[in-house]
Write a structure and sequence with these properties.
Helix content is about 45%, strand content about 15%. It has about 200 residues and is an alpha+beta fold. The protein folds into two domains: about 90 residues; about 60 residues, Head domain of nucleotide exchange factor GrpE (Nucleotide Exchange Factor Grpe, Chain A, domain 2, Roll), CATH 2.30.22.10. Helix 1 packs antiparallel against helix 2. The protein is elongated, with a radius of gyration of 42 Å. The N and C termini lie far apart (about 185 Å). About 5% of the residues have low confidence.
Length: about 200
Amino acid sequence: MTAPSSARPDPDTERLIAQLRTRCEALERRRARDADELARQKAESEVSLHRLLTGLLDVDDALAGSVRWSARQDRSHAAATVESLIEQISAAHELLRLRLLEADVRPMDLTHRHAVPDVARVVDTRPTTRHPADTVLEERVAGFYLGQQVLRTAEVVIAVPGADAEAPEEPAREPKRSGPSTARRQPRRLPRHKRRSRRRS
């Protein structure tokens, strides 16, 4: 009994296998190119999104500054147009914050918290005994998160040990007078006996 000879594919089968192998290699190269292109587009989209959100933060800074300015004004003496403008600015600022929140952009709100270098940049200090050292007393420029990442660090004023700064006292103002401050002299009254002697003479 003779041993079976090793089976060898015919030329047509070998040609088909070679074609399949070539197609698989081409598909693998195309898949790698598509993955690289998707990664590039994603990176460009993130850069564009970051640039757009940073621009919106500049608008937020401008509106927040306008809101702070309007809060310092005496509204009892403001004209109706100025009052309406103040309301529109406040509404626009609130709307912008809502739209940023929809994009997962959140303000840090660091006031009265410990300043952390990763999220806050110290631009000024203020001596105080009412707060621990390195406590954020004021956010000069608000910081924001994009998801779990820092979109923009905050610029803050922190507490340092020292006496509290007191506001300078205004000197007492004297009441205004319309004319010269000359006292009126009262007419001199003579005694009764002298007045009678004058009448007789």
